[in-house]
Amino acid sequence: MEKIKEEEVLLTVKEAMEFLRVSQSTIYRMIKRGDLKAHKVGKKWLMYKKDLKEFVERGGKATEG
Description:
By secondary structure, the chain is of the alpha+beta class. The protein contains three helices and three strands.
């Protein structure tokens, strides 16, 4: 069986909340503002774990550009 690479791991909003230690409304607000990269799949928002780590490394700031 092939191991999933960290950059391929997708997190749900609930998992992102736990990872960043913020509320659900904060996650949705950060998605809306463009602070977090997120992908809507059906009715769910999913985020790559690597993108959340990069967000933390930037000090919680959106990417420039």
